[in-house]
Design a protein that fits this description.
By secondary structure, this protein is α/β, with parallel strands linked by helices. 40% of the residues lie in helices and 25% in strands. The chain has 2 domains: 166 residues, Rossmann fold (3-Layer(aba) Sandwich); 168 residues, Dihydrodipicolinate Reductase, domain 2 (2-Layer Sandwich). Strands 7, 8, 9, 10, 11, 12, 13, 14, 15 and 17 form a 10-stranded mixed sheet that branches. The protein has a 7-stranded parallel sheet with strand order 3-2-1-4-5-6-16, sandwiched between helices. The relative contact order is 0.16. InterPro entries: NAD(P)-bd_dom_sf (IPR036291), Sacchrp_dh_NADP-bd (IPR005097). It comes from Streptomyces botrytidirepellens.
């Protein structure tokens, strides 16, 4: 077992990674290694940090070089992966972490990584080594699966959950690459809903010009039952789940539909489309959950709304919180999703006092 206490943040100078590094550094968690191909950006981030905190070092690491990854993980007690796009990274860094005797937190990952880590009973290797891998520790998936658990924690017999998730934001090339690949059975089912213990396809239609508290303007909502939503429905034992992706602008959904139709994997046009939407509508992000208990008659029994300016900062919050929970021994060995092992109440309360988000429950 690796007893070194260093935390290595791969992609630590990116939009999510830099938020993670700054949060861990402010909390006094370290020493930290800011790692990735671009050592100039890593060094610039290190220099921008308050020198009163724990030691921080920049390190060159190449995802395509197993020896480079192994040298990196050998120095670390915990690897926090913020490198992207996730569909290209997949389980590469997680397996390097296990080889090096380190625990692992992935800001993304979700089912595509989980499936690969558990193939051929690979999950047993994490238990045998006494190591932990935590996936989907971002805003979506991640907070999107944790916040409704908090909402339902003190309720009796939840019967229906409606979720609205999204907004308007710029896309990094890595994030755009993940958006392009975020369809197919490993991610979820368009137009589907959860009904009485299973996925019911072709159930829901898009909702146009919808006004919701979490979003500053009317939005379009597109039904997409994610694999995270399916896991949540099973965990809560809920009869109905309606899960919607929110777009606040026109350019991104149009460009995304075209890219999917053509089978394109080039994120350039998506980055441009997202930037156009931000110029026209501003940058904002939200998550809103409506929960019915006992009966679906009438308005929802409980609601939770989250409003934020920056979804990357939200992901940084949850990734850092997951890393700290793991380091404090609050998560057992094995392969887990963040929303399923973090404390919903404690995490939501911490986020409610964080400048990254504004949360209201009724």
């Amino acid at each position: 077992m690796n007893t070194i206490t260093t935390i290595g943040v791969l992609g630590g100078y990116g939009a999510v990674g830099s938020a993670v590094v700054r949060r861990l550094h402010r909390a006094g968690t370290g020493p930290l290694l800011v790692a990735g191909r671009d050592t100039a950006r890593a060094t610039a981030l290190v220099r921008s940090l308050d020198h009163a905190g724990p030691p921080v070092e920049a390190l060159a690491v190449d995802l395509d070089d197993p020896a480079s990854l192994d040298l990196f993980t050998a120095r670390c007690r915990l690897i926090v992966n913020c490198a992207g796009p996730s569909y290209r990274v997949l389980d590469t860094v997680a397996r390097a972490a296990l080889r090096g005797g380190a625990d692992y937190v992935d800001a993304a990952g979700d089912d595509p990584v989980s499936i690969r880590l558990q193939a051929d009973c690979g999950w047993r290797a994490w238990l045998t080594a006494g190591r932990t891998a935590i996936l989907s520790a971002g805003a979506l998936p991640g907070l999107s699966g944790l916040l409704p658990r908090h909402l339902a924690a003190d309720t009796d017999h939840p019967v229906r959950l409606d979720a609205y998730l999204g907004g308007v934001a710029s896309l990094t090339p890595a994030a755009a690459g993940d958006v392009l690949l975020s369809h197919g059975p490993e991610h979820g089912t368009p137009a589907a809903a959860w009904r009485e213990g299973g996925v019911r396809q072709r159930t829901l239609e898009p909702r146009r010009d919808l006004s919701l508290v979490a979003f500053p303007q009317p939005v379009d909502a597109f039904p997409f039952l994610s694999t995270e939503a399916e896991r949540l429905a099973r965990a809560l034992g809920i009869d109905q789940v309606n899960w919607y992706t929110i777009f606040g602008g026109d350019r991104l959904p149009e460009e995304l539909a075209m890219a999917w139709a053509l089978g394109s994997a080039d994120p350039t046009d998506l980055v441009t489309a997202a930037a156009d939407d931000v110029r026209r509508h501003g940058s904002w992000y939200g998550q809103e959950f409506h929960l019915w208990t006992g009966t679906t008659d009438g308005p929802p029994t409980h609601t939770l709304t989250l409003r934020a300016e920056d979804s990357y900062e939200l992901s940084g919050f949850l990734t850092a919180a997951t890393a700290q929970a793991l380091l404090k021994g609050r998560i057992p060995p094995g392969v887990h999703f963040a929303a399923e092992v973090l404390d919903p109440r404690g995490t939501t309360e911490a986020l409610s006092t964080d400048p990254a988000a504004h949360i209201e429950t009724t």
